[in-house]
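During the no-cost extension, the postdoctoral fellow (Dr. R.K.) reprocessed legacy sequence entries with the updated structure-token encoder. One reprocessed record is reproduced below for audit purposes.
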Amino acid sequence: MTKQKNKKKKVKVIYVDDGRTIYDMSEVTRPNPFGSPSFGKDKHKDKNKDKKKAQSTAMSKKEKWAAIKAAYATYLPILGIIIVGFFLAMGLFFLLFR
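Re-encoded structure tokens follow.
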């Protein structure tokens, strides 16, 4: 009983939010899934420089469709292999566990 009397109670610290921030997150935006990521861009740049850069790196319609066709030509065989492998595995399971 004497040990219990000698123990001091732990002081419970109550956290109070005073509104201060460690890092300003006002310039951080979410990534855009339908284009280039929007985070990391400086919003205060000169607008003319951005327009000139966008015009110099813009793809024509012909180049854009060529890039899309190249992507399909690259990824469709891989997708086909995955689908064929899935059906082969399902057929094997069907034959073994029938």
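Residues 30 and 36 are 11 Å apart (CA to CA). The two ends are 71 Å apart (CA to CA). The remaining legacy entries will be reprocessed before the final report is submitted.
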